[in-house]
């Protein structure tokens, strides 16, 4: 199976690595939203967030947090977005679980404008009940 992120982990493909330990690696995204746009990934191949073992949650988020400090202090970013696309419908293009850390600047002009919807009468409660019952059925 061909996976560009596994190739980066194995140093078969070049990347600008920012941080690395036994289980996690972080590197610059090759096509940044803004300079300093970084990716944080588990070294083991998991296709998406649902496959990620919970014992990696803390380590991955703590690397994301360190990078956030890195872009604020190192690049004078004014803010940042933390993002994880999961599934083709959500825009995932590399099927090796990853988190984006995107530095934001007051002057960058991005709006992340979405076409926001409104709930119909009673729909909000009905949707909440569906999610809660699915969550409550988890082991
Ligand atoms: P996704 O679209 O799956 O959420 O994000 C995948 C990200 O991986 C994209 O932002 C894309 O620019 C980045 N990417 C794809 N191929 C490479 C590569 O070979 N090297 C690096 N550094 N980033 C890559
Ligand atoms: Zn992979």
List keywords for this structure.
alpha+beta, HIT family, subunit A, 139 residues, binds guanosine-5'-monophosphate, binds zinc ion, 5-stranded antiparallel β-sheet
Would you write up a description of this structure?
There is one protein chain. The chain has 139 residues and is of the alpha+beta class. The chain has one domain: HIT family, subunit A. Helices cover 28% and strands 18% of the residues. The chain contains 3 helices and 5 strands. The protein has helices spanning 4-9, 57-75, 123-136, and strands spanning 17-20, 24-28, 38-42, 79-83, 99-104. It has a 5-stranded antiparallel β-sheet, covered by helices on one side. A hairpin with a 3-residue loop joins strand 1 (17-20) and strand 2. The model has no long low-confidence stretch (mean pLDDT 96). The structure holds guanosine-5'-monophosphate (5GP) and zinc ion. Zinc ion binds at residues 3, 5-6, 45, 96.
């Amino acid at each position: 199976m061909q996976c560009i992120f596994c190739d980066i982990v194995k140093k078969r493909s070049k990347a600008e690595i920012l941080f690395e330990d036994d289980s996690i690696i972080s590197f610059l995204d090759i096509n940044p939203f803004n300079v300093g746009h970084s990716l944080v990934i588990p070294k083991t191949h998991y296709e998406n967030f649902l496959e990620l073992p919970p014992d990696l949650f803390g380590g991955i988020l703590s690397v994301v947090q360190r990078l956030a400090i890195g872009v604020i202090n190192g690049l004078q970013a004014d803010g940042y977005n933390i993002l994880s696309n999961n599934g083709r419908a959500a825009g995932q293009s590399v099927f090796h679980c990853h988190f984006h850390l995107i530095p934001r600047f007051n002057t960058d002009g991005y709006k992340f404008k979405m076409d926001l919807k409104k709930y119909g009468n009673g729909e909000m409660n009905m949707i909440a009940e569906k999610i809660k019952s699915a969550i409550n059925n988890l082991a």
